[in-house]
Structures are given as C-alpha cells and as structure tokens.
Amino acid sequence: MLDYKQSLHSSLRSAWIIIKLVIPIYILAEVLYYYNILSYISFLVEPLTSLLDLPKETALSIISGMFLNIYAAIAFAAPLELTPKQWTILAIFLGICHSLVVETAVMKKIGISNVYSISLRVIVGFVVAFIATFIPDKLFVDTISNVVVERKVYENLFDVLKNSFFDSIYLTFQIIVLISLIILFMDFIKSRDFIKKFEKNISRNFSIFVGMILGITYGAGILIKESKSGALSKKDIFIIGTFLMICHAIIEDTLLFVIFNANPYVIVLFRVTFAIIFTLLLLNLYKKI
C-alpha cells in the first residue's frame, strides 16, 4: 500500500534540495552571462557545444550536469532561452551523461568499473546527441513559433538580480510540482505487489525495466545483493549496467526538459533505441574479448 506520508516527506526533501540548488545557480548563471564571464570558461567544452549545435554559453550547463545533476544543468541553461531543438539535444546528452560522480559509484557496486562507466556515458552521450542534430527542424516548428528566443537585456546588476530571482522562483516551482508528482507516481509503482514480488526474484529484463522507469540508483540498487551473491553472471551485469547507463529514469529526466518545450518523443525514442543498439554492439565485443 502506498505510504502517502513517506511520499510527502520525500517530496519535501527533494523540494528543499531543488530550492537550494536551482535558485542560486540560476541567479549565478544570469550574473555570469551579464558580465560575459561565460566566454572565458566556455572553451573547456566549446568543441562539444559547437558539434552539438549548442551555444557556447551552455558550457556551464553541460559541466554542472555531468558532475552534479540535471537540476544544476537546467538552472544554468534556463536563462539562455534555448530553442526547443537545442533543449532536446541537451536533454539527450545530459539524460545519458549526468551525475557521473554519484551514479558511477552506484554502478561500481554491481561490478561495473569506473573507467567503463564514465567512458561509455560520455562517448555514447555525445554520439547520440550529435546524431540528434540531424533531426529535421520541421519536428520543432510548432513549438519554436511559440517561443521567444531573444536574450533579455538588463540595465544594471540590481535589475539582473531582481529579474533572475523571480524567474528562478517560477522555475523552481515548476520543477517542484513536477518532481512531487513523479515521486508520488514512482512510490505508487514501488508499492505494487508485483514489484515487491520481482524484487525477491531478480530477473535481467525486470531489472532493466525498473532502471528505465525509476532510475539508475533504484535499478542498480535492487541488483547489488544478487550481484554480490553471485546469482548474476558477469555477462548479465554487463548487459544490465550498459543499458541502464544509457537509458534510465526516462520519465523524470524527460519531463524536466519538456518544461522548456523539448520534444519528449525524440528524447525517449533516441535514448531507448540507442541503448539497445550500443548494448548489443558492446555485448558482441564483450563475448569476443
């Protein structure tokens, strides 16, 4: 049975984390842009942003997303007023390659090496996002026409701080509402008897399904005990780990970018399709090695 109090507690805890993270980073991003400071650090990932047809100012978004989390990435990218296609490309890359520090540690617990985890997610994230740049623009025409992409012009620093503060509050509210609904939905799924039943009888396919929907931490988490006991073969661990690192939390991650008119169908299709393709390719290579 669903524990509503626990879900509410989780929502409030997540809300507090989001408030502490999104508001200051959003304001910081606006200040950095106002003083043109981003131009001095964008060279770090400028080749990447250029190949992905993203403005160089998305450098901080990409870096913070890779090493922190998607919330930080969104906070840095939101003031840039990207087009829906750019948001979609960014969502594909960061959906695959985010929270590397934390999630790599999680995958390590089921026997996936840190080098493989990071290399796979960075390389695949870039390749899949690069392929997404060739998506016909007509898929985004309907939403682009409703989006104003002109950069806001501020008169002074006070104007920057004032406007960015209210904008960050609005963005934070949107994210908190979305995350709260997702937590409630996820907790509902976790409380179902068939989920609890399968947790006790881990199967490879079920583990992949759970990771896709609930996230890499939960998907890998239910496998840790079985992997340590030897119930899963190295090949099973390799298959599950590879797939989950490319395609996990497709509901939560996708919806966060939909706020900015990213195309959810493109995001999900690309992540699922290329997760299958790369997993099969790497599995064949694994067998040969």
Describe the secondary structure blueprint for this structure.
Elements: H1 4-34, H2 38-41, H3 46-51, H4 59-67, H5 70-77, H6 84-96, H7 100-108, H8 114-132, H9 141-144, H10 157-191, H11 193-200, H12 204-214, H13 216-229, H14 234-246, H15 250-258, H16 264-288
Any overview of this molecule?
The protein has helices at 4-34, 38-41, 46-51, 59-67, 70-77, 84-96, 100-108, 114-132, 141-144, 157-191, 193-200, 204-214, 216-229, 234-246, 250-258, 264-288. With 289 residues, it is an all-alpha fold. The protein has one domain (4-288). It starts with a helix and ends with a helix.
Main traits of this protein?
289 residues; mainly alpha; 16 helices; globular; transmembrane
Question: Which structural class matches the secondary elements?
Answer: mainly alpha
- The amount of helix comes to over 70%
> What is the number of strand segments?
0
Overall body shape: globular
> C-alpha Rg, in Å?
20 Å
N/C terminus separation:
46 Å
Low-confidence stretches: 143-150
Task: Describe this structure in a few short sentences.
This protein has about 290 residues and is an all-alpha fold.
